Amino acid sequence: MLAAARAIAALAPERSAEQQATDELADLVIDVAGTPIDERGVAATLESRGLRDIDAVERYGKRDIFDLADEVFVRARAIEPGEPTFLQPEKERVSHRSFAFAYLRGVFSFLPLLAQVILLVTIGYSQWGWVHFRLAQASTVALAVGLALLGTAGSVQVLGYLGPLFSESDKHTLTRRATYRTLALGMLVSAIFAGVVCIPLLATGAYPADRIGQAVVYDVLISALWLLNGALYMLKRQFWILVGIGVSVGVVAAVLNGSDWGIYAAHWIGLAVGAAVQLAVVASLLRRRAAQTPEGLRLAKFPRLTVLRPAIVPLFLYGTAYFGLLLGDRAVAWSAGHNPLPIWFNTSYELGLDVALFGAAVGIAFLECALHAFTKLALPRQDRYSGLQLTDHNRWYMRFFARQLAVVVGLVVVGGALMLGLVTVLHDAGVLGNTARYYNDPVTQRVFVLGLVGYGLVAVGVASSGVLFNLARPGLAARAIVAGVAVDLAVGMVLSRVVDFSYAVVGLVAGGLVFAILAGQAASKVLRRADYYLFAAY
Amino acid sequence: MADRHPEVLLCTEGSYPYVGGGVSTWCDILCRELSEYEFITYALTGAPEVTLRFELPPNAQRVTHLPVWGVSEPAESVLADVPASQLQARRRATTPEVIQTEFAPLLRQLLRKMLGRADSPSLHPVDDGAVMWQLWRYFSRRDWKLTWRSWLTWQVFTDSILATYARVGGDHRLPAETPSMGEMATALRWLYHYLTPLSAPVPRTDLVHTTIAGFPGLAGVIAKHEWGTPMLVTEHGVWVRERYIAISASDFSLFEKRFLMDLSRYIAQINYACADVIAPVTNFNRRWEVPSGVDPERIETIFNGVDPGLFVPRRKPPETDGRPVVIAAARLFPLKDIETMIRSAEVVRQELPNVEFRVYGSLEADVEYVARCRALISELGLEATFHLAGHHSNPAEVYTEGDVTALSSISEAFPYTVLESMSCARPVVGTDVGGVSEALDGFGIIVSPRDHVAFGQALTLLLTNHGLRTQLGRQAREWVLSRFRVGNSVDGYRRVYARLLDERAGEPAPLTKPLETAA
Predict the structure, then answer these.
(1) Is A301 touching B (CB cutoff 8 A)?
(2) Are the CB atoms for B418 and B399 separated by under 8 Å?
């Protein structure tokens, strides 16, 4: 820049020695501070470089520094100042590898659930499953798993917000406090959920007391494990989730094969040991990070609840409702008709949904990439547009959002096709064992297809919600998903009672559709004024 | 007033009672010596995590702490004691209609004044402070975060900014200054944080004394308008000048620089406009204050002073005896230009290979700068010569560890380190900035800032010429005894306080009424 200025200056008529000295000062000012903003700024810069009034008089023939600064300012402003920020080249490019890692992280979030299915199919038992369970037993465990997921999901979502809120500003002591408080909250909420469901069942005699007891033990242990998984995910130590599963299943195997205590004891001891290992890891990680908190930040105080509440209440609702949407149709389907227990597990239905969910997971895992893209691509984009290019700026964000939705939908379709292909190959190869009979089961087939559509719509809703979270509007996302759950339950309830229990899955489709539409509308509305929402969110 | 001690609101920024340094020392002396006054410290800091660096005297136990950064909203900090129900009521009261009718006109006024030309200051307390005062009153009933983060606020802000930049060149703005979307968002977030004083209750006192013509002075502006409280500004360095230096040298874009400079200049002007007396610690400051529109009649220099009974001449301790030692006492950050001092050490070492430089002062103020200094020491092979010694618990002892004292700053007010060293009969080599030459008055050596060769040569001269060193040291102490005793300084403030309180004894009406009609 200076070279160009000097080249231009060289073509100009010859300047006096005094003027040349002023030109040199203009160069100096630009070297030190860039293009000056005003005369006072030049005066301050000149003084900071050692020039005094006496120098202005003796060396430059001016009254004082301010007089000198006036002239230097005019000269310095005449030198080409370069491009404004939005026309300057982009500073860094985002690597494809970082997106691959983000996708893997997304895939990883399904691993705990996927592991249960794989273990069940391959070795016959998992952390809480067993192929030899009778339906009454499977129903009890299914009730417990559902309660645990519902009871902890809100807290896991809150933890995912609070953890980074503190750790990104190196306030690790607060991360530790937030984690323990949220884990405790999660256990409390889980206990309340269990109480709300189990006490009436027990009081009315609808469920035998021993089964309720079993369900509560499973619920407590799975809740603990689920919350700790959330903590490890928040701490970006997903590897320990796998270790927890491995330890847990190892203990189940040891107890089941090495004693006559039975499957319940095996599961409970396995879950307890797995949770204990994960708790030790979480505690150790939190302690070590807290020790790394910079000295000054150790004094950081936990924000008041009134400050946190506007963010964490909708997040809590969203997390709970998310699992409500994923599990609601099951509860509706399994409670339809006359069964020995109010919630009666149905393998045909469950397998259809499981395969659909793993198909949709191919698309849902992309949401981690969407989050990564928002941070790395969308946020910096604000500086690629002039303040006068409002429409173009906001249009870019709309297109960005539309592309994301298209990718999610595409991946869900691909995932569904892949799962169908995989199941067909496994079936034809004869490796599905006892579960092979469900391949041609019309309930399983129907639930798979509709479930895939439903989960696909949920994925679209979650992608839209991601935009709303990134722009600090969790309330809009919570509203959309709560509406989705309500529609899911209502539609599922009617169809499962009027047509067939398996049509509860239509509730998932309807609820997913409502969620996708409402969240999508909210995200579009927000992104149409991305300029404002980006300001207000950060 | 006879029944109680008059109360003074002492406004600080990044200094007393949480951070060490010259201004904090000055505050500590003021509070201790003026024991007939009750002080309430109104302290702005960068981060909320702070600890007291001073033992508060009995008459200065109350502190209102305002962190500007590191909190998401005032409810976390300055409003921490306000019950949640009240905060909730404020949120409910902050409707779009309220923002539209009450806040938006004030924001427009503020931006119009702030984004105006630098050379057209409108220094009138009613006009200039009124917007801030009215905003403060607004935020005493409405929610800070909801208001600033509202859609309407963003509209008003961007419209005001873009109206300025749509006329590229018109207001001396270059096309390259046009803001990006992100920069406009950043600028409004700056207002959200920097104007934190408008969110906090201002303790009602008899007098407001601000140690800087910057953001904490807004408390004085508000008190002036609300209750007619007299206001005194003591400028150590000239705040707006130091802001210009820091902002100019930053990596901010042209738009961001202009915005911050406009904001800083406007805040300084409001302080100047509302102050009854401006009492800089050096006459040097006048040359920046008067062009900013301050009436020279209202400027009353009160020099800093030290306790010559505490800072006494002593023999060098055995550990440094027999070796030429240069002492500096300074927090390490760019305005102290320690890099020039490091380079000067190389010059001195050529003549005196066993010379030692010891810099006492916090290494925490700017860790990146400290790292740069360490790298330079290493690059020049000065590890055995130049020592960053960190904080010293007893400043009265540091100067007598050495033969001479060095001050290499590129900006200063009226530095205690110079007075303290002179009081210890250790001559000073200082840069010609701020009030340094006024303090030395020939009893030390002055060189141009950033000239490490001249700086090194001056140090060498004093270190090698025992007679000159001793003579300058003795004269320097006598100069301090005659002119810069702490008593002289404190008496100056005592006089100004008494005069302002006397003038106020007639209880002049606050500026509320004319403002309300004006609004």
Answers:
(1) yes
(2) no
pLDDT category at B106 given cuts 50, 70, 90 is very high
* A308 contacts on B by Cβ (under 8 Å): none
Coil, strand, or helix at residue B67?
A: strand
* pTM given for the model: 0.88
Q: Minimum mean pLDDT among A74-88, B5-19, B66-80, B172-186: which range?
A: A74-88
> pLDDT, tens digit, for every residue of B484-501?
999 999 999 999 999 999
CB-count burial class (<10 Å; 0-12, 13-18, 19+) for A425: exposed
Taking the C-alpha atoms of residue B228 and residue B223, their distance in angstroms, rounded to an integer, is 6
CA atoms within 13 A on the CB side of A284: 8
What's the CA gap between A170 and B267, in Å, rounded?
32
* B390 dihedral zone (left: phi>0; alpha: psi -120 to 50; beta): left
- Cis peptide bond prior to A13, omega within 30° of 0: no
For A145-196, how does the pLDDT look when each residue is reduced to its tens digit (9 = 90+)? 999 999 999 999 999 999 999 999 999 999 999 999 999 999 999 999 999 9
Report the chain B residue with the minimal C-alpha distance to residue A296. B49
Distances in Å between the alpha carbon of B392 and those of B395, B397, B409, B478? Answer: 6, 9, 20, 26
CB-CB under 8 Å, B449 with A50: yes
Q: Which residues contact B301 (CB under 8 A, 6 or more apart)?
A: B279, B280, B281, B282, B283, B285, B286
Looking at CA atoms only, how far is residue A389 from chain B in angstroms? Answer: 8
Complex ipTM: 0.88
User: Token pair 């067909």 is at which residue?
Assistant: A424
Q: Which of A37, A57, A162, A312 is the best substitution to test chain B (most B C-beta atoms within 10 A)? A: A37
Verify whether the Cβ–Cβ distance B244 to A297 is below 8 Å: no
**Contact flag B183-A85 (C-beta cutoff 8 Å):** yes
Q: Is A35 helix (H, G, I), strand (E, B) or coil?
A: coil
B134 Cα to chain A: minimum distance (Å): 24
A535 chain-B contacts, CB cut-off 8 A: 149, 154, 184-185, 188-189
List, for residues B136-190, the tens digit of each pLDDT value.
Answer: 999 999 999 999 999 999 999 999 998 887 654 555 677 788 899 999 999 999 9
Of the residues A47, A68, A295, the best mutation for testing chain B's interface (the one with the most B CB atoms within 10 Å of its CB) is A47
Residue from A85, A375, A397 whose CB has the most chain B CBs within 10 Å, to mutate:
A85
Residue of B nearest to A295 (CA): B49
